[in-house]
Amino acid sequence: MKAKTFLAFVAPSVASMLLLIALPLVGVVFLSVYQSYVKTELREVTTEVPLFGGQTREVTRTVPQPVLDDNGDAIFIWEYVGGRNLREASEIEGVVEAFKGPFPQDEGLGGKLNHVYKRISNYDFWSALEFTLLYTFFTTPAILIIGLGVALAVNRVTEGLRGSLVFISLLPMIVTPIVSSSAIFWMFLDNGIVSVILKQLGFGQIYFLSNQISTRILIILYGIWFAAPFAFIILYAGLQTMPRDPLESAMIDGANAWQRLRYVIIPHLTPLLAVITMIHVMDAYRVFEPILVFGTSVYANSVQYLTYFVLGVQDNIHKAAAYSILTIIGVVILLIPILRHTFKEQKAIN
């Protein structure tokens, strides 16, 4: 292929990546290392204060007022602050202070570590990071196991039933995250269908959303239910490319179902398992919708929700950009072991 033809072929993709990925990322980095504020100056402002009998009194106060340019617009000051926004967002100084103590004298190492954990978990970022990692580490292996199990089960049924089973299995993924998480939320409300059924069965009134453990479990179960169809459809497609010869040879050699799965099927699906893991880790680390819908950021917060809260509620674009950078760093750190393992396997095969 000629260089001119090749460049014409890849130019749209390169332009899209620059506009949709590189440029926004540069913008986020820029916002994270700068701080902007309105330039103000102290001015005397006179106001009329109403008194009894319809009388008023003038009061003069010195208050900060925005400085306006020639067009009457407020003047914004952009100040380069380096890593200050990142330090404030990550609250690293608080973590260092937590390890410094002081600690109760009568506690051992376990008690001191628990003391440190309680201090660190009081910081917004580290509390959000804790549940983000829990959500990622619990949902990732679960969707791989469930997705593989469903794919194997669907692959064994008759062809006439496969289409219907595939459609039913994909329903959680078809529904948008906001709608599906809202459905789970409504089911487990105090007067939701699950709570009412359990109460009718004699279990009493169960308040699923009233404590940290049950709320986190529900969000994690939602994440598994929502993401498992993605793993299923990828692995099911991989099973369709499975050659029959290795399986038949294993059966002739006396391998049982577990041995065929472990030594024949899983090695064939390993590249797909790696792809599913990488995609889900990136998606799970940015968990947002169930946190927003459940409205229980006290019990279960996430780095992505924290970014949204700082930007939308606190209106701090620079700190939100810092949280975005920390999210990217976290995703990269989680992907490094997966990429290294995949690279080693591919290098061994080649």
Structure overview:
There is one protein chain. 70% of the residues lie in helices and 9% in strands. The chain is built from 14 helices and 4 strands. It has a two-stranded antiparallel ribbon. A two-stranded antiparallel sheet has the order 2-3.
Summarize the structure.
The chain has 350 residues and is mostly helical. Helices cover 70% and strands 9% of the residues.
List the helices and strands and how they pair.
Layout (H helix, E strand, L loop, with lengths): L2 H30 L1 E5 L1 E11 L5 E11 L9 E5 L3 H7 L1 H9 L8 H13 L2 H33 L2 H16 L2 H11 L5 H11 L8 H29 L3 H9 L4 H28 L4 H6 L8 H10 L4 H33 L1
Antiparallel strand pairs: 1-4, 2-3
Helix pairs in contact: 1-14, 2-14, 3-4, 5-9, 5-11, 5-13, 6-9, 7-9, 9-11, 10-11, 11-14, 13-14
What's the number of domains?
3
CATH topology label of the largest domain: MetI-like fold
**Roughly what percent helix?**
over 70%
User: What's the number of extended β-strand segments?
Assistant: 4
Report the order of strands and helices. Answer: HEEEEHHHHHHHHHHHHH
Strand order of the largest sheet: 1-4
3D shape: extended
